[in-house]
Amino acid sequence: MKLITAIIKPFKLDDVRETLSEIGVTGITATEVKGFGRQKGHTELYRGAEYVVDFLPKIKLEIAIDDELLQSALDAITKAANTGKIGDGKIFVSDLTEVIRIRTGESGAAAL
Amino acid sequence: MENQVVELAYALDTFYFLVMGAFVMWMAAGFAMLESGLVRSKSTVEILTKNIALYSIACIMYMLMGYNIMYSGTESTWWPFAFDILGSSDNTAAEVIASGGETYYSGLSDFFFQAVFVAATMSIVSGAVAERMKLWSFLLFAVVMTGFIYPVQGFWKWGGGFLDQAGFLDFAGSGVVHMCGATAALAGVILLGARKGRYTPDGKAVAMPGANMPLATLGTFILWMGWFGFNGGSELIVSNVAEANAVALIFVNTNTAAAGGVIAALITAKLMFGKADLSMALNGALAGLVSITAEPLTPTPLLATIIGAIGGIIVVFSIVTLDKFKLDDPVGAISVHGVCGLWGLIAVVFSNSEANLGTQLYGAFAIFAWTFIVSMIFWFIIKMIIGIRVSEEDEMEGVDISECGMEAYPEFVNK
């Protein structure tokens, strides 16, 4: 089992969710975050005082996924979240040691 | 029949005072919304508490002593001490008729109208000292300001004191209200110091954007509307053709001065900063309103617009300049009400032939000197007794928590 952590542009959330549903992904957690990579921020003025907007709003998705579905999920997210412009985001994949469904107590792949 | 007309005029003018007073009362909501929009969310509850509490303190202190200090007509033209609590008696119909219409309004309606002006003055201070002042220190100052500092200088002009006798003109209070409030604020800001992190060691200003632009805008519109009462009501009478026309012109000039202020501030901000700055446009509206408040009756609408527009330009420069002096004013109160209040007093000479630049400056100086010195003394006393600034820790966490123990937006994650 793997945990996909994807940072995407906020307005891409619906596209990504739809595409993931189509390939059979049944659970996603989304958080509002701020971040930057190589997409630089910019300077604005508020009442004549400068402030730097470094951190840009993003959405972080966390998806627990079965190894079988991993590659198609990665392809789905990459395709749906892509705009071709700088700041599209990144996907991180990590090993997932355990998954438990709270309601039933199921664990492992059955809980995905 | 004639008695009926006299009584009707009395009723109408009393009604006018009351309704215009209610409009000015509504400005308290305007200040509350404007200020809570321009501070950070962690300071919102505290500033709202200050606003509603200062309004209440003002009304009570003015009833207890302020009104009679200002209007008892004591012998001295500069020291009006007549200690008296407001009673509930008023003019009888017989007295009104016997006066032939010279007594044309209820005494209590006059109190009501004047009381809301005191509250407006005090609320100017609240924004300038926001985000780092102890709540109860502020409220303690409010007691002194509304019960003593404001009434004394108010007596000098509107109570028939030496400024009035010198020919100083201030129709609705560019000096008596706005400059006075801003001066008390300035004294407080100097003694208080800037918010932590507001200026870098080499003197550059750091932006601390307000948390809620919709509220700030709503507040500005509410103040704009309330100002019709502020200036319109200050004509003090509406019950004949000449006066009704005067009130109409005052409404028009008040409105158009605000509009001039908005456009001028917007364009000035665009030229100075490269983009439209809503907070400057909002300050511009108020700057225009303050600028016309000293004389909203004698200018033509075009001149009123220009006076307001000049106020709108001045306010932007003033805000930037205050930052250069490290005087931290989160909402621009000192610039809007103080600097533009002074401009408003000066602008009277452009449309009112009875005005004299020297006398206007003399009045401005008297109000400024009295308010600044006495305010500084009381701020200092309060600082010695209970302190005026919250601790650095409390300021970082937010005065909402330290002074009020609650958050304005508890369901949102905040810093």
Describe this entry's structure for a reader.
- Chain A is of the alpha+beta class and 112 residues long.
- In chain A, 22% of the residues lie in helices and 37% in strands.
- Chain A has two helices and six strands, in the order E-H-E-E-E-E-H-E.
- Chain B is mostly helical and 415 residues long.
- Helix content of chain B is 69%, strand content 0%.
- Chain B contains 15 helices and no strands.
- The longest helix of chain B has 37 residues.
- Chain B is globular and about 70 Å long.
- The mean pLDDT of chain B is 95.
- Chains A and B meet through strand 3 and strand 4 of A and helix 11 of B.
Structural class by secondary-structure content of chain B:
mainly alpha
Helix content of chain B: 55-70%
Q: Largest beta sheet of chain B, briefly?
A: none
Shape of chain B: globular
Please count the helical segments of chain B.
15
Structural class of chain A: alpha+beta
The DSSP helix count of chain A reads: 2
Report the mean per-residue pLDDT of chain A as an integer. 94
Q: How are the strands of the largest sheet of chain A arranged?
A: 2-5-1-6
- Oligomerization category of the chains in this entry: heterodimer
Could you estimate the helical fraction of the residues of chain A in percent? 10-25%
Cα-atom Rg of chain B, whole angstroms?
A: 21 Å
What is the strand tally of chain B?
0
Pair with the biggest interface: A-B, 8 and 17 residues
Poorly predicted parts of chain B = none
